[in-house]
Specification:
Elements (H helix, E strand, L loop, with lengths): L1 E6 L2 E6 L3 E3 L8 E6 L5 E8 L4 H15 L4 E4 L10 E9 L2 E11 L3 E10 H19 L10
Antiparallel strand pairs: 1-2, 3-4, 4-5, 5-9, 6-7, 7-8, 8-9
Length: 149
């Protein structure tokens, strides 16, 4: 079955057996995360349009580089529509696991999203369809009107 998150013009669908952690307040920026039963993550960071999107992605990369010694990344294409403004894929070690993360930036008239899809490298390809379905449900419902953050 499918569950839906729907609050303050942010809406997406996700598998019912995934754990949702969302903020209690309605203010931007906000972070909403999902975790699968086997430890895969899908994380949404939502920002108002007052933040520079290039700086946001640079901050994400810098945070990963500071936390993971062997962090390496490269730009990657996606099949998502609308396409992200920027998409990178990274590989790094966490504990004894090789982890793959895809980070994507989506810009809209009223919000900027960074979506992070993350799993152990051996699981990432298997989870890609689920990750992309969640992301597609988000970007397919982007708000049509401006909001005040």
């Amino acid at each position: 079955m499918i569950k839906r998150y729907q609050r303050n013009l942010i809406e997406f669908a996700y598998p019912e057996n995934w754990q949702l952690v969302a903020p209690d307040d309605d203010y931007l920026p906000k972070e909403i995360s999902l975790e699968s039963p086997d430890g895969c993550f899908w994380v949404l960071h939502a920002f108002g349009k007052d933040r520079d999107s290039g700086e946001l992605m640079a901050e994400v990369i810098k945070t990963f580089e500071a936390n993971y010694e062997d962090f390496e990344y490269e730009p990657v294409p996606t099949d998502l529509e609308p396409a992200p403004s920027e998409a990178i894929q990274a590989d790094f070690f966490c504990l004894d696991f090789l982890v793959t993360a895809r980070m994507m930036l989506f810009e809209h008239q009223s919000l900027t999203y960074i979506v992070i899809q993350q799993a152990e490298s051996r699981q990432f390809d298997k989870m890609a369809l689920v990750f992309d379905a969640i992301t597609t449900s988000l970007i397919g419902t982007l708000p049509a009107q401006d909001i005040d953050p």
